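Newbie here. two chains, one complex. Structure please?
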Amino acid sequence: MRPVDVVSQTFQRNRLLIAAIAIAFFAMMIVTALVTYAVLLASPDLVKGLQGLLESAGTYIAIPPPYTNSLYRLIFLNNIGHFWNPIRLWVWIPFIGAFELGYELLLNAVLIGGVAAFVGMTKGPVYTAAGLLPHGVIEIPAFILEFAGLARWHVSTTRALYAKLSGQPVDRPLLLEGVRDTVTLSLLSVALFAVAAYIETFITPHLLGR
Amino acid sequence: MASRIDSTLLRIEELVRRRSSTDRRMGYVWMIVPILPALAAVVIGASLLGIVVSVLPRISSFTQPQNTQNAVTPIVGEIIALYGLTIITFCVVLFFGALAFYYLIDRRNRHFGRQQLLFSTLHRYLAAKAPASENISRLGQLSEDSVYGERDRPAGLWAVLFLCVAPIVGLLTAYNLTQDLRRHDELQSSYQITLVNAFSDAAVQPPSFSSYKFHKRDPFLFIILSAITAGFFWIYWFYTLLKDYNEHFSDQSKFEDQILNSLIPQEATKLCGVCGATVPRNARFCPSCGKAQTI
């Protein structure tokens, strides 16, 4: 079977997962952006407070300068942490890991929504769009695909474990299909993360005039 | 023999009529149960963000003793107010959640219970007409399967458990309700096919059933999606619990009407003296207006 067909069939089988994760992510992001905007609008003092907080954070978090391979590695390896970082590998534990993923989805959506609203208010919509969109249009789909792959993993393994525990036969072809889908979606997400990290390191700083 | 068949027929009619009290449709206003916590989370989260960020400019004044009390007092008030709001919201969510789960499980129990009686009565009726039929024996087996596989779930106990450990019991109840309807649909489908053949064996005009709608939801997928979307998918899952059972009750009504039409010949009907609707021969009440009929 051609790789294109494999990918197409994987998308067909997992369309509910992808759609549900995408809708949840964007809904949380939009709600957070609107709420942050409303809160900041209601109290301009908060904007100053947050600006101060962010500036002080820059002094103790060592982020490599733009246009460097170090920054590229930092962004890329951080984004694919679920595949190699031992601390984050526990998201693969069947069923239990799904709850950690829920927390991460919420955290990412809230952070992106909040930051977009805050930057939009302080530096204007053009700056926000230039800073977030070029890599975001690739990074967010990659993020959704990664989560869909992990969701597929949890559905397949939980179902198999439940069957095993309750003395029923394990549907092996279904389990293998789930594992194959997880691998396909994960590989796709890693490829997209690589591209997104490249844009964020070498193109976005240029657009922001750094 | 004829009188026994007649009394069984009356019992079937009565069981069908009883559906108005057992197959209760739940309105979509119950969607408040999954939506309310989401709204509360947004409001409480925004308030918390406001409090936390508003504390930042005051922190510098903490170092000067005379300013500490002035800086801290409003924050404490805000935190207490937010804490009160959280507790109230939590109680409201728990109360409505428990109530919703009680109704969801209770209507499932009532519907399954009535249907088990209907299945066994139909089997008795057809077995009296054609005792040697294999299809009718199969109908009896399906009826027993339904009694064995669709036992009551204690609605009150689940509601109380929900009050104690809401998220886990909520997921577990939703899992059970989804799985139960899925199995019930499978049983119902086999029953319909067997019933058509059994009617032919008993020399009764077989009913023509409309296509049956299956609710093939995967509860494992729904649990994982609810977890991965931080509870967001739960809103949709709860919606399906309302919709699927409501749809099933509608399908079931049509199914039962078709059975009654086959069992009670058209000439054995009369007109309701009050509203003029067509009423089955031995009906004690009009299915249209509900007024008592003279038999």
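Moderator note: The radius of gyration of chain A is 20 Å. Chain A has a mean pLDDT of 91. Thread marked as resolved.
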